[in-house]
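thought: fold this chain, then report.
action: predict
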Amino acid sequence: MKNSIITLLLMFSAMLQAQNTVSGTVTTIANQPIKGVSVYAPELHKGTTTDADGKYTISNLPSRKTKLTFVFVGYSSQNKTINNLQQENTLDVILEDAIFEMDEVIVSTAFNKIQSQNVMKVEHETIKSLQQKGTSTLIEGLATIPGVSQVSTGTSIGKPVIRGLSGNRVLVYSQGVRIENQQFGDEHGLGLNDAGIESVEVIKGPASLLYGSDALGGVLYFNPEKFANVDDFKANFSQKLFSNTLGSNSTLGLKTSTEHWKFLARGSYNTHSDYRISGGDRVTNTRYNETDFKTGLGYSDAKFSTVFRYNYNKLDLGIPEEGIAEQSTSKTTGFPKQGIFNHLMSLNSVFYLKNSKLDVDFGYIDNDRSEFEDSDVASLQMKLKTFNYDVKYHLPKAGKLESIVGIQGMYQTNANLGEEFLIPDATTTDFGVFGTVNYEWKTNVLQAGLRFDNRKVTTDEHGTVGDEGYFKAVDKSFDSFNASLGYKTNLADDLTLRMNLASGFRAPNLSELTSNGVHEGTNRYEIGNSDLKTEQNVQSDLNLEYKNSHFEFFVNGFYNHISNYIYTSPTGAVLDDNDVFEYIQNNAKLYGGEIGLHFHPHPLDWLHYESSFETVTGKKQNGDYLPLIPANNWNNTIRTEFKIKDWLKEGFATLNFASTFHQNNISGFETESNGYTLVNLGLGGTVKLGKTVFDINLNGNNLFDKSYIAHLSRLKNDGIPNMGRNIVLGVNFNL
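observation:
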């Protein structure tokens, strides 16, 4: 018995010591080694970089099919798959020059392909590139992506709009978890800080197949920052200053990794005064303060990989009700105001089986949203607690066929602790089951999927029948079947065609089912409808891309039909001096798209010209226009890249002209909006002064202090313009 135990221990020890290792050399086409190439195993959250000879080694990999990405600025990315990994493996990679953007691995889609292999067109932007545009908030940066805009309340509150759909019709993911923070409300912003976020992926269209309810209009998928490379320690500090709001954004982060363990932490503090409009006046009580903390702990070996992440976000937001009144540069919020405390925890794990793998994701969100009218005692306080789970099994690959099956669900409770109620106490449960397949041959890819979902909503009765704030008990169940079909092919070496047809759904939210009162900031008495049906849509997408070494062109077109579209309609009655609106349903359609080009003339390697145009039209079945449809937009950017001796590397200068057109396609209670053009300037690069190295950005937004009112601004009805000129200075030090 003793000998048997010793033998087992020796075998186990040998298994631990046996490591599957991949090593090789990364070179150019001219066989020159490339130093500093990022070599990364996404599923293991593990990476390294090539040395001066272009060599790399990455160890402790699973004994199955493994993906490695090779990324370096100025070269096309490579996504390599190694089948039947052995103990020692050699993989040499040749990177080709790439004038345009790198071909990124897309995480938000089912099979995690690089974009050039993806059936669905997904927009990918790094947070660094958005920050280089000098925008004040994360949502402002997102609104520069073609097809994305925002419904804003000053500078502190912004809600994403994707091709004319917003609110609960756009799903937001962070740390692999769907964000639930009472997003039904117009006064409820994104609730995310860009510190500790590496990139964002935008799915413009129904994505219910992978994400369930509320992904009817699209998905914003935020990828958290990567851990440090093995046996590396990194720390950095960044500081941004904003002239318009006299604002400051400070961030400090550190991270380290060993062969198996990984750790990171990042804290950020953001504070702003009331924003200034053209001419010098400030919009009273648009000031806000934000504290954000993110941390992560990971472990990986050849059989298992897991990452735990935690995000704490605290927001202190002023609610502008007086317009341009008392002038102040104070950063202490006045009344009325919001206080938001958000805790987000996620556990993302991968189990490596012989020829397959299992992805298991758990998430928990604790969201506390309070509103203070005239004192520090909350008149309204809602606590939303959400538990999410997502389990996906990747079946063994059968030839060229890849398959995934999975289950997904949510358990959510809403509790009111204040005197006022916007929505009743409620419990929501989701359950979904799905399957999807991907088949590739030559340059063709075919992808299809099917899904079933059920959502149950149960609410408590509250108040006195007939009074404002009365909510009757609701017990509803909503079912939905959805499917998707996509095809990608290369019509020529440089020409790619993508066609997608997908359905999506959204169950009515608590506000639509139960409202009975005046919602903050709407000036409307809203009455819910417990008989509302599930919104169901079908969208067709067409994407055509042409790309060579000096010219890139794309055109995206879509048609989106929505059955049972939910919206508010005036009844003609008046209660408490407010017009009464009720929630009703009608079929609707949205159509439009984006078109753009990127020109890099030869031999002017330092010059880039980018142009994009986006348009969307939304109509009800009776021909009336839908509300909150963004105006057409035409964006033009001239970008130069340069180097000054040894003290400035990766230098850039940008001149941007953002033209928004007149919007006269309006809903019944909206007003038309005039067009405008904003001029923005950017300058930056990596500065080296002795041993001190730092990145610097200097931006001038709305350079000529243009007075304008965006169509989707919630301050528009009061005639309050958007932000005037804003000079932004940002520096980032690697400590």
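thought: worth noting. The first helix runs from residue 2 to 17.
final: tokens above.
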